[in-house]
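#onboarding

Welcome to the new folks! Below is a worked example of what a typical request in this channel looks like: someone posts a single protein sequence, and someone else replies with the predicted structure as tokens. Don't worry about understanding the tokens yet, we'll cover that in week two.

Example request:
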Amino acid sequence: MGKTQKVTATVALLACLNATEVHSDQILDNLVLTSQSIANSMDIGIRVVGGLANYGEEGGIAPIGTVDDSGALIAQEQVTAYNAALNAMANADYYLFQDFAEDQAAEALENMEDAIDNFVDAAVELTTVIQVQEMAEEAQETGNNQDAQDVSDFIATNEVGLQVDQETVDEYNSSLEDIEEYSATAAIWTAASQNENIGDWADGVAESYDVSFTQASDAYFERQNDMIKVVWAEQGIALGVFGDANLNAYVDLAQILDAGEESEFYQQGPTANSYACFMYGDCE
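Example response:
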């Protein structure tokens, strides 16, 4: 590319960057084009230097204007266009509501996993109740006094270890409530992230107030009000989305229990199997 052609191309690029409305993809395209323009000049420049060095040693004389004609020189217009593209990219906002909502859901899922770990720890400690339940039920079914005596003897020998600790029960109960809260929070943010109408509306609100979701100071799910909120405290701005009215994402208890029964978490648990199977792998 000659110098005149290169200047014409870079001026055209600069004009594009000065357009009143530039789509985010165009901003990225401009950055690619302007950076590639300089990179191409550098590539030619490096080749020219290599060639000139080679022929300088071998006695090959380069014609006047070799560097200028090669396209290796970087023009001021290229620099201006590149810096303008760089600035436009620095001010571009690619982090939209969908991304924000997905991150909120991921955080809630991470918290849910921690709560599940707490639930498992408590449930494992309580599995001795299942052991006693199985032994007592078997003795009840046989109606054999000796079987009942065996249960009595087992409990007498292990009573301290078999007793239910209230602290463990409290952890079991609180972890269940935490799991419900985090599951619902993850679910509503996930549903919101998948709703294009809500995403477009939320992005429009952010744009109208000249704020970015990267600047949001807080986000939460008000379950009692069935609303997710995003807050920009410094700007005094908040937006909210009602779940039931907009997302149609609610399930009932029967659906939850049915899904739970089919889950690997339940299928491998102590109530779906026997105590011996769960604790020792004795699943005959």
